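just leaving the lab so this will be short. what follows is a protein written twice so to speak, once as letters and once as structure tokens for the fold. can you read through it and tell me how you think this chain folds. anything you notice is useful, everything is just below:
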Amino acid sequence: MKTLKIISNCIIFMILTLLISCEKELEGDTTPPQLVSVSPADGATEVSIYTTVTAKFSEPVIVSTSSFYLTEAESSISVEAEISIEKNKVTLTPADSLQYGTEYIAHLSDKISDVAGNTLKKSHEWSFTTTSAPDLEPPRIVSILPKENAEEVSVDTVVVAEFSEPVVVDTSSFYLTWVMGSSETWVEAEISIEKNKVTLTPADSLQYGTEYIAHLSDKISDVAGNTLKKSHEWSFTTESLPLIVSILPEENAEWVSINTKVIVEFNARYRGFTPTFVSITLAHFSETVEATAYGSWGSYSGEAVLTPVNSLQYNTKYTVYFSCKFSSGEERNYEWSFTTEMSPWELGGGSLNNVKTNRNDEVFITGVWDDDNAYSTYFTAKFNNEGSRQWFKETQGSVSAIEYVASLNVTNEFVYVLRMDGQLDKYTTSGEEMWSVETSVYPKENKGIALSTDGGVYFYSNYDERIVKLGEQGIISEISTTGYSIMDIEDAGGYLLVFGFEGGPALAKLDYNLNWISWGGTMSMYLEDVFGSQYIPDDAYGMEIENDNLFLVGKKDNLLTAFCYELSGNSMSYKWQTTYGRSYENGMRYDRFGDVTTDRNGNFYALVYARERLWGILDDFYYHWEKISPSGEIEIISDSFWAGKYISACIVKIAATCDKVFTAESYGRWDSRLKVFDSETGERIH
């Protein structure tokens, strides 16, 4: 009994000792608790409506629903909840689930303390938003296009369905079909989606006069997976085949052949009715053109053809009248106009500056358009060998009325036009514009364009004494020729041949990169050193190369003379020389150089100017052309033509095909013409 009492006293002593120790320890804790983390995180969205709210501290705390609570952000209404504590973590559990799509604010009061009574330094709040309510509403069709049972719908239509919300759709749930007999054909198409609108775009145009059915499957769903309540279909009918399928000549066509027929292809099943009568006529103003008309049609297509008895007039506007009556009693009338071509070799105005031909016997002409306001609209035109204009191109320049197209050169594939404003234009011979480039050169004193077999474009200008190679980007390379008076530059098939004067007539070679090529051990071949003075011109005007023949034009003993040499590799040999022009005849002296050219048969043509001997300041000038055969004989001397009061005011260029000779004359702004001659007889044919 005494022993038990001793043990009891010992236990009581130990408990008192422990309590005294704890009290002393608590009396020493002065550090307030700290908030370590919260959940849900501040600003969190899409939080579950069944969430709990937790706060983790740095040490155990004393907390209640008055110091840790949850409210709705908008209404500030507190959420009924319970608090539970596990070590340092406090959990707030709402009595019921939270509201969908609602922002909540969690509150931690500064009354929260640790077991020593130290409170939070300050209150803390954070917010989060619960997830939106689940989408249980199926999508609805708001509108469709074309509308149900629509008629005369364009064959190029798209099919559109607009929904109440964005949907998931593809070509298996949105598609288009058309029915023929008992078979249904699926239309190949693509689907595109923009917000709530879905567009079905057929790969090709739909058929005329056909009923189509658009299908929306009940497999179409919104992003939440809710599908349409039921499939939907609607139909529409495309437009009828137009009555007029095609016309020839086309409406407002220009440069139509004077021997054209008028052909109308039409639909013989228009709006379900067949034609009973077709009429087609042609008129110029109120005058009907005499013609034969023929019309025929079958089950689906028809054709009406009108053939004028005589050729139409040149440069004339005609109107076609087409009428069609149907078994329904309906009548449809159409009319349209076209304009015939100008007469052969006619341009319709402008000042001509250059004429060139190629080996396809195509004829190209350049000039400046006759403009009352500014004389800087350049043109380039192409004719076939019979005089029919093939195309006509205009480009706006920046120079004054006194200027002109500087140079023209052509191949079988391309046309190059160097304008007075320094612009170089390139076309295909079919009329396609390839490029136009600013050359930054002064072409007023240029000696023409040379075209090399590698596609290079070269020209020489006396103004700044340089030879320039041009391309799509402008100047590619250049070389100075100071002190060397260049008369002409031509492609000799593999290299460029330069003709000029340097103490006498001389020739030099350049490669296509404008590097000088040694010729007989020297940069320049002096013709007198090779052939002697008897077989070279005393002075020089120009050069042509054709079929390995080199033609030089100059004067010999003060008479106009053409020299022919044969080119062979790195050498050349003399062939012949022919004096042309007429010294004195009918009071005129024919001793002035004009333009020269060759044809693809090796014939040489030269223009000759003459001055009428009136002994006055304003003496009249004339010109003619002469044809020299490949062997050097003069075959044709043409008639003379007036060239004006000043030789400098007249620009005459010459070109030739295998059977024609062309002279392009320009005497000023309103006096310009193209003359065409038979190259075998010299007879003027235009």
In short: Residues 2-26 form the longest helix (25 residues). DSSP finds two helices and 59 strands in the chain.
